[in-house]
Write a structure and sequence with these properties.
single chain, 364 residues, mainly beta, Sulfite Oxidase, Chain A, domain 2, Immunoglobulin-like, 2 domains, six-stranded mixed β-sheet, five-stranded mixed β-sheet, 5 helices, 22 strands, globular
Length: 364
C-alpha cells in the first residue's frame, strides 16, 4: 500500500498539507471556537474524528457481546441495556491529535489546529454494572473494546479496538452511552452505543461498540501498541497516550477576517473568555497574555462544580490599543502542572497542548 497515504511519517520542512490530509480534514471537523460559549456543545458542533467509515448499525439489530474471561457471557440488545441503572456525566472530550498541525516538523495525519474538542452530557449504563452482570474473572487484566468500524491503517486490516485495565474500566463514570445531550446518539457519534471514558483522550472512547472481551494479558492491537504512542523515533516502543493534558483555549474576540481568521477589535475594553480543562489533575487557575506569552495576568476562573470531567469557563478584561496583538492563555492544575508555551514534539503529533495564539488587529 502507498506509504504516502498512511499516517506515521513526518512532513519535510516547509511542506504543505497534502491532498490526503485535506481529504481527512473534510471528513472530520473541529469545534468552531466561538461555540465554546455553550456549556454543552450542540452535537453538530462537537468535534469528530472517524478513523474508517461510519458503520450502518440499526438500533433494533444492534447487539453487544461481553465474553472472554467472564463467568456469564452476555449478549445485550439496546432494550436490555436500557433496563440497567442509568447515569449521566458531563465530559469534555479532546482528540489526542489536537494541535498536531501546529508542530514543526509536522506529523502527517488529520491536521488539527486546536479545535478538536467538545463537551457533552452522555447518558448510559455505568460499565461496571455490565461487568458485574458478566462476572469478570480475577485472572482478567484488561478489557478489549471493539467497534464496528473497519479499515486499513499502515497496512494493517482491523476493527477499531482499544483496551482499558479492569480497574480503569470499573471507574463509576465510565459509561456505555446511548444518549448525548438528552437525545439518542447520532450515527457519527457512535450510535447506537459507544464507550465514554472521562478524562481520557478521544481514542479511548470507542464508538459503535459491539464487543467487550476480558483478557489475561495486555492487549497488543494496532490502536493500542502501534498507534497512540509518544515516540521520537519510529522504531522505539514509546509510551502510551492516556489522559488529557491541561489546556486553556480563548474564544476569539471581536470579528474575523474571512481567509486569515485574524481577529479585528476596536480600541478600548475587550472582554476575554474561554474554557480550560484537564484529564489529569483539576485546573485551578488560568493566566492570560496579550503579548504572545511575554507577560501574564490572572483570569477569573468559574468555581469548581459537580462536573469534574467538564471544562470550566474563565474570563479576563483586556484594554485593546491600536496595532497587532497576540493573545494567549495557559492552564495550571492542582498538582502544579502548567500548560507549556512551547510544543512537546512527538512523531504522532499527540497531546500537543502548547498554548494557543490568537492574532488580533485593533483598529486605529
Amino acid at each position: 500500500m502507498d506509504e504516502i497515504s498512511t499516517p506515521g511519517r513526518v512532513a519535510e520542512p516547509g511542506a504543505g498539507i497534502t491532498l490526503h490530509e485535506l481529504q481527512l480534514a473534510a471528513r472530520n471537523h473541529g469545534l468552531p471556537l466561538e461555540a465554546m460559549r455553550y456549556d454543552l456543545t450542540p452535537p453538530g458542533l462537537h468535534y469528530l474524528l472517524i478513523h474508517y467509515d461510519i458503520p450502518y448499525l440499526p438500533a433494533d439489530a444492534w447487539r453487544l457481546r461481553v465474553d472472554g474471561l467472564v463467568d456469564r457471557p452476555l449478549e445485550l440488545d439496546l432494550a436490555a441495556l436500557r433496563t440497567m441503572p442509568t447515569h449521566t456525566v458531563r465530559v469534555t472530550m479532546e482528540c489526542a491529535g489536537n494541535g498536531r498541525a501546529r508542530l514543526e516538523p509536522r506529523p502527517v495525519s488529520q491536521p488539527w489546529l486546536v479545535e478538536a474538542i467538545g463537551t457533552a452530557e452522555w447518558t448510559g449504563v455505568p460499565l461496571r454494572h455490565v461487568l458485574a452482570a458478566a462476572g469478570v474473572d480475577a485472572s482478567a487484566v484488561e478489557l478489549v473494546f471493539t467497534g464496528a468500524d473497519h479499515g486499513v491503517e499502515r497496512g494493517v486490516e482491523q476493527d477499531y479496538q482499544r483496551s482499558l485495565t479492569v480497574a480503569d474500566a470499573s471507574e463509576p463514570d465510565v459509561l456505555l452511552a446511548y444518549a448525548m445531550n438528552g437525545a439518542p446518539l447520532t450515527p457519527q457519534h457512535g450510535a447506537p452505543v459507544r464507550l465514554v471514558t472521562p478524562g481520557w483522550y478521544g481514542m479511548a472512547q470507542v464508538k459503535w461498540l459491539v464487543r467487550i472481551e476480558a483478557v489475561a494479558t495486555p492487549f497488543e492491537g494496532f490502536q493500542q501498541a502501534t498507534a497512540y504512542r509518544f515516540r521520537q523515533q519510529p522504531d522505539e516502543p514509546g509510551e502510551p497516550v492516556t489522559r488529557m493534558a491541561p489546556r486553556a483555549l480563548l474564544v476569539p474576540p471581536g470579528f474575523p477576517d474571512f481567509m486569515s481568521r485574524v481577529r479585528v477589535v476596536r480600541p478600548g475594553p475587550v472582554p476575554l473568555e474561554g474554557r480550560a480543562w484537564s484529564g489529569r489533575s483539576p485546573v485551578t487557575a488560568v493566566e492570560v497574555s496579550a503579548d504572545g506569552g511575554g507577560t501574564w495576568f490572572p483570569a477569573d476562573l468559574d468555581p469548581p462544580n459537580m462536573h469534574r470531567w467538564a471544562w470550566r469557563r474563565w474570563r479576563a478584561a483586556w484594554t485593546a490599543t491600536p496595532g497587532t496583538h497576540v493573545l494567549t492563555a495557559r492552564a495550571l492544575t492542582a498538582d502544579g502542572e502548567e500548560q507549556p508555551t512551547a510544543q512537546a514534539w512527538n512523531r504522532g503529533g499527540f497531546a500537543n497542548n502548547a498554548a494557543q495564539h490568537v492574532e488580533v488587529h485593533c483598529l486605529t
